[in-house]
Amino acid sequence: MYRCAETAGCRVTCVRWNRANPDLLAVTYATLAIGDHPGLVCCWSPKNPDHPALIYRPPTGATCCDFSEHNAALLAVGCYDGSLALYSTSQKTPRPVSDCFRSTDKHMGAVWDVQFVMKDQGVGEAQREVLMTISEDGRVLQWTTRQGLQNVPVMTMRRDPSFSNKKETRTRKSEAFISRFAVGMHFSFNPTNSAQYLVATEAGSVHRCSTSHSDQYLFTYSGHMGPVYRVHWSPFVPHVLLTCSADWSFRVWHVDHKTAVLSVPSASKSAINDIQWSPVCATQLALCTDREVEVWDLAVSALDPLIVHPSVSRAAANTTLTFGDQGACLLIGDTNGGVTVYQMESLPEPEPDQAEKLEAVVETQLSRLLSTQQEEEETEEEAAAEAKAD
């Protein structure tokens, strides 16, 4: 377990491996409560899980992070107050090399995800790396890092009018901006087309967006009955998507269909806080709820997980997860500042045609979905004809 006195009592909000250095793990921590609570970012080495190699202290809770692929020493950190900071792990100073802590040109709500993304420049041109963030203020921003941190809006997400919150007081005079824009929880860029990305929202919808269109969605996926915490493209099959939600379920989608082809409740019948595809097996995935970790293989069963493992601590709830060591282990963050490492054992070995196996699962479920929809439409038509005859 990665934990020390500095992290005790803090909530682990994000765990990210360095893309070039597998011996460097960044973990962000926050106290998600009203008031001024400083954040914490620790960079750990597997060689010393008892004390971090580097410690950074942003002035407010750290909610997410990501390492640059172009510059392996560069770490971006998103914060609870909407700010962003860049740290260099090659420098000994704990201060950021760039930040917007005091800037008015930042997010107006917590930054829930930050990612370095390689974007195509055009036909025959090389890719360049850009920094993207998504926030509860409903905006997706693209940041330039050459001369300080400056941003360009990429998307402002409209709130779904059918989504209502009973806790809100709806008056013309006091309607807040948060009621006009959708809260962004997470995003995922298409691994084969960096111009397209998915956005998970608090309203339960997932939107497919384009960096070329800032005022409209390309497609909307609906069905979740609670906030969608995570959305991922399959790393093996580019037209397959994965989501998890507070409604106790994870869902698998075909990119061209608005209804999920597979909806699976968690074994623990509780909200799914995080989920990820396996990096080595197309049909396998892992998820965490507050009290359990589950590993599924959709080619084996879509009804029962391969593994259900209770949390190591009854006093702490699971918050986030990531695969490590090329899929050989799972790292689970919790609400008490710990990151526990689980070794993956006795799982089915990945087969050469694993991508085809995931496609087969999705196509089978899609055929059933389309057949059911057709039967429902025919039943509705028959009922309408009978009512007209009467």
Q: What is the number of helices?
A: 1
How many structural domains can be distinguished in the coordinates? 1
What is the N-to-C order of secondary-structure elements (H for helix, E for strand)?
EEEEEEEEEEEEEEEEEEEEEEEEEEEH
Strand order, sheet with most strands:
1-2-3-4
- Overall CATH architecture: 7 Propeller
Radius of gyration: 22 Å
Mean pLDDT across the residues is 89
Q: Tally of extended strands?
A: 27
Structure class: mainly beta
Question: Runs with pLDDT <50, length 5+?
Answer: 164-179
First-last Cα distance: 70 Å
Assign the CATH class: Mainly Beta
Q: Bin the strand percentage.
A: 35-45%
Helix content: under 10%
Shape: globular
CATH superfamily: YVTN repeat-like/Quinoprotein amine dehydrogenase
Biggest pleated-sheet summary: 4 strands, antiparallel
**CATH topology assignment:** Methylamine Dehydrogenase, Chain H
Describe the structure.
This protein is mainly β. It has a single domain (11-167, 175-389), classed as 7 Propeller (Methylamine Dehydrogenase, Chain H), CATH 2.130.10.10. 9% of the residues lie in helices and 39% in strands. It is built from 1 helix and 27 strands. It has one helix at 354-389; strands spanning 11-17, 25-30, 40-44, 54-56, 62-67, 74-79, 84-88, 98-99, 111-119, 128-135, 139-144, 150-156, 184-190, 193-201, 206-210, 219-221, 228-233, 240-245, 249-254, 262-265, 274-277, 284-288, 292-297, 307-310, 318-324, 329-334, 339-343. A hairpin with a 4-residue loop joins strand 26 and strand 27. The protein is globular, with a radius of gyration of 22 Å. The termini are far apart.
